[in-house]
Amino acid sequence: xxxxxxxxxxxxxxxxxxxxxxxxxxxxxxxxxxxxxxxxxxxxxxxxxxxxxxxxxxxxxxxxxxxxxxxxxxxxxxxxxxxxxxxxxxxxxxxxxxxxxxxxxxxxxxxxxxxxxxxxxxxxxxxxxxxxxxx
Length: 135
What we know:
By secondary structure, this protein is α+β, with helices and mostly antiparallel strands. The protein folds into two domains: 56 residues; 62 residues, no CATH class. Helix content is 13%, strand content 28%. It has two helices and ten strands; from the N terminus they run βββββαβββββα. It has a five-stranded antiparallel sheet with strand order 4-3-2-1-5, with no helix packed on it. The chain has a five-stranded antiparallel sheet with strand order 6-7-8-9-10. A hairpin with a 4-residue loop joins strand 2 and strand 3.
């Protein structure tokens, strides 16, 4: 992970953080020139493991699934819609203009902020993700 791609508030799994809760999602709370702080502990950006965007990640990030399309992989939030695939999501606006494909949760958080000027409201208090939802 490169520092310029990070923002305070981004969510990651942290390699070698705690052996007993290896799938726990952590939030970046501070960034220095060479390290990031997660839960009060300074770690190298190389220890951050990106979280793949899945249906559960979208739901925990305030997106809702289109209910009127059976087995839909289309989700929406207040500002745009997205289609979920194996390689992440493709975001598009109300005019169906493709905004940008993103694969990881921190990329979605950053793009959301860039487009709206607001933080993506997430619900990851004590969420543990299965290994398949990690990069």
